[in-house]
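Dear colleague,

Thank you for sharing your sequence with our group. We've completed the structure prediction you requested, and as agreed, I am returning the results in plain text so they can be pasted directly into your records. Please verify that the sequence below matches your submission; if there's any discrepancy, let me know and we will rerun it promptly.
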Amino acid sequence: VRTFANALTELSVVPVVVLGVRAVRRGDIEWPGRRRFIEASLLVVGLLWAPIAVFGGDLSFPGVPPTPSVLLLPFYCWAAVRFGVGSVSGALFVTALVASYEAQAGHRPFEVLPAPESLIALQLYLLIMGMPLTALAGLLNERRRGETALQERLRFEGTLASISGAFVRQPLTVAFHEGLRDVGQFFDADHVALLQVTS
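Please find the predicted structure tokens below.
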């Protein structure tokens, strides 16, 4: 039991803490745009509703699958694809908290099993869903970083080409002026100057 509990803790708590501390240290925390904030809010509401409905035994209407815990999967996929590793970790953490609360209230998940085996089944279930989705979120983050780096590289190559072309097509003073302007735009600088030192 402790092995599975520790593994689930490593998957659901550690990434949130590590990513949060790193973001605070780097100063990467920024307020999301309105659409992103609305999407994140809807995801949080879904991640709170789904575990309560699944583990609280409130799903009694027709069409519910025999194992309603699969209804958590769309929210986990949403978190992984749109918000990254930290959100998958947070989703697992919220689910584990809700399942623990519902178990204390007498709504034990996997009620066909005895209490200890039901707890292990829940931990294994969350681990089996969480590990591939965490890996998927990590791969998607890596791809986004690669795309950003490629776009920056292409922007840099375009700036170099523009500067080189200016020296071929125009007089030297105009070429220096346009080259400095392009460098300033590339680095988003407030002021760019060229210092000429004569011996």
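Summary note from our side: The chain has a mean pLDDT of 82.

Kind regards,
the structure core
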